[in-house]
Design goal:
Layout: H1 3-13, H2 15-25, H3 36-48, H4 52-65, H5 74-89, E1 105-110, H6 117-130, E2 135-139, H7 145-158, E3 162-164, H8 171-185, E4 189-193, H9 201-218, E5 225-231, H10 236-249, E6 253-257, H11 267-275, E7 279-283, E8 291-292, H12 296-304
Parallel strand pairs: 1-4, 1-5, 2-3, 2-4, 5-6, 6-7
Antiparallel strand pairs: 7-8
Amino acid sequence: MSGDSWSDRLFGGFRKTSEKLTENLAGIVSKTRLDTAQLDEIEDALILSDLGPRAAARIRERLADERFERGADETAIRQAVAEEIAAILRPVAKPLDIVAFPRPQVVLVIGVNGSGKTTTIAKLAHLFQELDYSVMLAAGDTFRAAAIGQLGVWAERLGVPIVKGLEGGDPSAVVFDAVKAATEKGIDALIVDTAGRLQNKRELMDELAKIRRVLGRLNPEAPHDVVLVLDATNGQNALQQIEIFKEVAGVTGLIMTKLDGTARGGVLVAAAEQYGLPIHAIGVGEKIDDLRPFDPDLVARVIAGVA
């Protein structure tokens, strides 16, 4: 796939945020400094574009300190906004590396039902395959027959082994069998689907704690990653999910999906500024290769509309 089509999809994914920002920055012109009223206006525009109050305040501060030698027109302001967004995103743009020794690297994938979790697991498996890693899937979301079935279909399509149990079975038993099988086969990455029920936090906490205990018996380092899948169309709700899952599951990194034309892509910046968790990849569409690590500078320019 050419880089162009990925860039095009990236533009599409952040279009809504970028357009909102453009609309709100229109007409702001100043000499070398922006006044308080203009800074207020820009800060509001950033919050309205889903960048969140913390990132908006940080960008405002940057703009207040900025000396616009040629005058602060829309282009100069956007440029400064892009630079500050890039500074927020750079520390969190970290691809998911397979570094575990001994293998396999165990990646627990969590997220609420409907976030695109199962499809994201398939896309992540494909990403690893492209890097020449061997992959196995584990259907640990035993509460939904549909989830087990869907993951099975993906495993077949990708040509990777899958370990699954019965609907309603014990997820930690599935995970135990999967780790044993992956170890015996010398698999590089074992990606584990888990239940996404947030209605009962206590149950989910207990279940994840049990999975961790079982993993720990087989490999004290596992799980190596606990990746939360977030749906970008949820805007600020996605941030609440990070808050809850961090407490419930000890999240180590994020994947942001559904960055399509309807997405509120600014939430990527809000998540980076508020939580500082690694953002391993972003998904910009339905295709199998639509999940990729992202270039923070390019995303910043796209959001600010200077790319």
